[in-house]
Amino acid sequence: MKYDVIVIGSGPGGYVAAIRAAQLGMKTAIIEKYNALGGTCLNVGCIPSKALLDSSEHYHNAEKKFEMHGIDLKDLKVNMPQMIKRKNEVVEQTVKGVEFLMNKNKIDVHHGFGSFVDKNTISIKKEDGSTEQIEGDKIIIATGSKPITPAAFNYDKKRVITSTEALNIQEVPKRMVIIGGGVIGLELGSVYARLGTQVDVIEYMDRIIAGMDSDCSKELMRALKKIGIKFYLKHAVTTVENNGKQVKVKYKKRDKDEEMEIDADYCLVAIGRRAYTDNLGLDKVGISTDDKGRIEVNDHLQTNVSNIYAIGDVIKGAMLAHKAEEEGIFVAETIAGQKPHIDYNLIPGVVYTWPEVAAVGQTEEQLKEVGVPYKSGKFPFKALGRARASTDIEGMVKVLSHKETDEILGVHMVGPRTADMIAEAVALMEFRASAEDASRMSHAHPTYTEAFKEAALAATDDRPLHI
Fold it and tell me: Among the four 289, 308, 348, 455, which has the fewest Cβ within 10 Å?
């Protein structure tokens, strides 16, 4: 069969690219090696983890906060199998939604492992061992990423696990060690900490979520400590061993030789992800990769083979579902002859712990490093009426603006529903608004977003109203 566009991988980047290509009139096919569409994000990433985060948040509030609201409960307990069942139902519904969209847009779906035969031909190896070949004028690689699992950690999917297995634990562990204080480790760590697990996070860097603004790191760690998570910063894990019913994690300070150890029920390896191009056949078509195995692309997301493009986690940049989606649309429109644009500086990053962390633009550290003159304005949620009403008083909003022009350069939030709030900052920055512009917008009262207005006031000329 011949197509205008073939997309390899059906995650958020791949299936959105396919939809946009079909909308633009191109005959489109998508290849997915698993039976379910949606890739990592829908099946073992964004969607199931948010389902468990919400479930654990409900339990935590029932255990810790309901009484102060005048709600008394008896015999509160965690039903882990039901929690996992609901998570699976959410995933199933979302995957069916993607299947519906493929049918609606008349996109041919091929299940099996796709690999290059030549620059226009893809071989698809199916589950039953048979193969078929399809041809495409343009090919989009959207095969995503896999967790990094060093050999010394002895990843076995039983006691030494990644985020994939952590989403299906059928009982609440007594203790869990997490290697890595990044987004994935902290989100899943907060799930189990809320349910009663003793969670220990071992992080090599000197702070958690090291890629975000340092004020966000401090605020989030303070909040997570309150739910019982212990942090070992500037520590390195040396070995991990599965002893049957437990796992032994050996670690040490970065600058010391003395080893320490923790015995736990599980060790979650969350030190990052790598581009997944295994057995894709890149060598057969001569596609270049960098030293981290990522596919190299130009400003049009085009590889060195002119009809082949790559998007999402297989290329450089933040490994975010919404970044992949924007790139999928970008490539489809580029193929159609349009002139799309992506501003990578304005792709927000979010950590779905509670409080949530959300940010867009430059961090204070980045501005200092390049010598940009800036102003900083902060506003704490504890000074906000809406936050006090919901007992969500942890965190702050921080606005960074240019010292001379007042243009907003970065917005960093830790607090309730900041994952949704950050869109306001993105919209303003897309139009190159100033902090004063943000401060003069009317924000409904009482809302969480008033914290953004107040932080913008603080950045404009240090005149917040409520502190």
Answer: 289
Strand partners, 393: none
**Catalytic residue selected from 69, 300, 445, 466:** 445
- Encoded tokens for 371: 């010598």
The distance of Cα 106 from the centroid of its chain, to the nearest Å, equals: 30
Domains and CATH numbers, the chain: 2-147+274-344 (3.50.50.60), 151-271 (3.50.50.60), 355-461 (3.30.390.30)
CA distance 287 to 267: 36
443 is catalytic: no
For residue 419, which of 391, 449, 378 has the smallest C-alpha distance? 449
pLDDT tens column, 107-129? 999 999 999 999 999 999 999 99
Q: Which residue in 39, 58, 60 sits closest to 48, CA to CA?
A: 39
- Sign for the CA dihedral angle at 302, 304, 308, 313 comes to negative
Tell me the C-alpha to C-alpha distance, in Å, between residue 339 and each of 113, 270, 333, 336, 454.
32, 38, 7, 9, 38
